[in-house]
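Ops channel
N.P.: pipeline sanity check, posting one input/output pair.
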């Protein structure tokens, strides 16, 4: 049963055409509203989640604040901000339920990577936010030292590529978190990756649906949920489904 374990959905998107969308490399996503998300996850025991800003939403938070208001206090936001954002604005966003800052190196739409360290330390010191990186793991080696020096970091979609997986594993051993998301985006064996990452650091993995799986070669399917259980067993899977992420996003 899909509702047998609690799910804190650590990575999904809300796309509401009432709010501005920016074409990214000619791409605009279909609508996926809060109502659509609730319908699609109705068979899950969802206890909260993280709404992640996409490249096509740029620096806009209006849609995100609206979605958080609809979904309630167990949900948090992951936003993108320009480097010149004022402290007061960040504090207000934190009060609205936004708990993390994203750098989208894969698709763009976020601030430039040259500002990563400065912004990571600033938002962590100011409001306790962590950094989320959408990056192909084969691009991680030159950033390795910088990433492990940051206060708190997660990497999306299991790092995407087999070529960079050894570096991802090393980062996990150093305390970096990884989202067990986007299984249809990667080019390696999911079960082996999950098993090795969990062994390297049991608190690292955080499962998410990645709905509506924008631009994914294969969108999310319910079998992805069961893959985690089959690979790790129910007790470890519960940590990956909710415990690890709730701690990382600073939720009770």
């Amino acid at each position: 049963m899909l509702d047998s374990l609690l799910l804190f959905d650590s990575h999904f998107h809300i796309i509401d055409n009432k709010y501005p969308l920016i074409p990214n490399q000619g791409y605009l996503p279909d609508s996926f509203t809060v109502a659509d998300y609730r319908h699609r996850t109705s068979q899950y025991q969802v206890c909260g989640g993280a709404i992640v800003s996409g490249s096509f939403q740029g620096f806009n938070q209006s849609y995100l604040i609206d979605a958080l208001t609809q979904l309630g206090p167990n949900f948090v936001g992951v936003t993108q901000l320009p480097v010149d954002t004022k402290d007061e604005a960040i504090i207000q966003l934190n009060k609205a339920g936004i708990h993390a800052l994203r750098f989208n190196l894969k698709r763009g739409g976020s601030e430039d990577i040259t500002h990563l360290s400065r912004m990571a330390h600033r938002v962590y010191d100011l409001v306790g936010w962590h950094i989320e990186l959408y990056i192909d793991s084969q691009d991680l080696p030159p950033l390795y030292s910088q990433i492990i020096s940051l206060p708190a970091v997660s990497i999306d979609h299991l790092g995407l590529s087999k070529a960079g997986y050894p570096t991802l594993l090393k980062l996990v051993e150093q305390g970096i978190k990884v989202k067990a998301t986007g299984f249809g985006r990667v080019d390696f064996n999911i079960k082996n990756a999950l098993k090795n990452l969990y062994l390297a650091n049991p608190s690292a993995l955080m499962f998410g649906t990645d709905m509506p799986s924008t631009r994914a070669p294969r969108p999310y399917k319910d079998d992805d949920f069961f893959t985690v259980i089959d690979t790790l067993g129910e007790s470890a899977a519960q940590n990956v489904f909710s415990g690890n992420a709730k701690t990382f996003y600073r939720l009770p």
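N.P.: looks fine end to end. The beta strands are 6-12, 45-52, 75-79, 98-104, 130-134, 153-155, 177-180, 205-207.
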